[in-house]
Amino acid sequence: MAIRSFLSCLAEGRVFEEDCIAELAARGWQLIHRPLGNFKAYDFSMAFNGNEYKFECKCDNASCKTNRVAIEFSCRGKHSGIRATEADFWIIKVCKQAYIIKASIIMECISKQEYVSIKSTKNTRLFMFDASFFIQKAVLFKDYK
């Protein structure tokens, strides 16, 4: 992936994180912490009813064309993505809809090999899920239509 494309994806992800924080705040959640940097174990933590939860936000722009959602698990031979996360919940934008799902559910489905395939790129390895997985296992978080 070209540097410009990579930086563009990071910027888009940051905008999506901001939107997720605003959406959760509108539902009564309070922002607790937002780690600095691009490669962190979670994107932000928020509290609701006295309990703190960590969130990871992902956009999968290719899902509109491929009907597949990529979940990263390795980068340059090291655990990353779902295998390195400390997040309790993942919010994943699949085409024009964002879904929220417990990270433990994703991990359970990986252990049961409920993904469609494993994709390898130059530096990254990804579990590929059918987009319908999120309709079945996750909760609609926001509709962007």
The parts where pLDDT drops under 50 for at least 5 residues are none
* CATH C-level label: Alpha Beta
Compute the separation of the termini in Å.
28 Å
Strand content: 35-45%
Biggest sheet descriptor: 6 strands, mixed
- The CATH topology label is Trna Endonuclease, Chain: A, domain 1
Question: How many strands appear in the DSSP assignment?
Answer: 10
Question: How does CATH name the architecture?
Answer: 3-Layer(aba) Sandwich
Series of secondary-structure elements, N-terminal to C-terminal: HEEEHEEEEHEEHE
Which percent range fits the helix content?
Answer: 25-40%
Quickly count the helices: 4
Which structural category fits the helices and strands? alpha+beta
Question: Within the largest sheet, what's the order of strands?
Answer: 1-2-3-6-7-10
Global outline:
globular
Mean pLDDT: 91
Q: Rg, please?
A: 15 Å
Work out the count of structural domains: 1
Task: Give a concise summary.
The protein has 145 residues and is α+β, with helices and mostly antiparallel strands. Helices cover 30% and strands 39% of the residues. The mean pLDDT is 91.
